[in-house]
């Protein structure tokens, strides 16, 4: 899936979530599946963003990438969330939920 969603937001409002040309690929024995291949969007406070597309186009993998829940053989090969300062996103581990510093 590739795509770009944009809405006009005059002034200084900052997005609460922004993805910039996100790419998540699956490195399988039979080859590379480019499930998400350059998806960008910005979500602003109070907004709802709907993602539509045919079955298998990458909607779930996009959402799982944002949540850092991609498991092998999948990998986020490009993706940046400016509010988190991690690039590429690191995988979420079960102990993260138990760590009060996070
Ligand atoms: N574990 C995996 N290994 C290989 N390909 C995968 C894996 N998980 C998902 N895919 C592929 O990624 C693509 C996007 O899947 P998905 O995001 O689940 O689609 P949908 O838009 O229906 O939610 C599909 O082509 C799917 O076959
Ligand atoms: Mg799905």
Structure description:
There is one protein chain. By secondary structure, the chain is mainly beta. It has one domain (14-79, 91-96). 8% of the residues lie in helices and 31% in strands. It has one helix and four strands; from the N terminus they run E-E-E-H-E. The protein has a four-stranded mixed beta sheet with strand order 1-3-2-4. It binds adenosine-5'-diphosphate and magnesium ion (MG).
Question: Main attributes?
Answer:
single chain, mainly beta, 102 residues, binds magnesium ion, binds adenosine-5'-diphosphate, 8% helix, four-stranded mixed beta sheet, 1 helix
What is the end-to-end distance?
A: 31 Å
How many domains? The number is: 1
Low-confidence stretches: none
The ligands found in this model are: adenosine-5'-diphosphate, magnesium ion
Helices and strands: which structural class?
Answer: mainly beta
Number of helices: 1
List the helices and strands in order. Answer: EEEHE
Q: Tell me what portion of residues adopts beta-strand conformation.
A: 25-35%
- Coarse shape: elongated
Q: What's the β-strand tally?
A: 4
Q: Tell me the major beta sheet.
A: 4 strands, mixed
Q: In order across it, which strands form the biggest sheet? A: 1-3-2-4
Give the overall pLDDT as a whole number. Answer: 83
Q: Helicity level, as a percent range?
A: under 10%
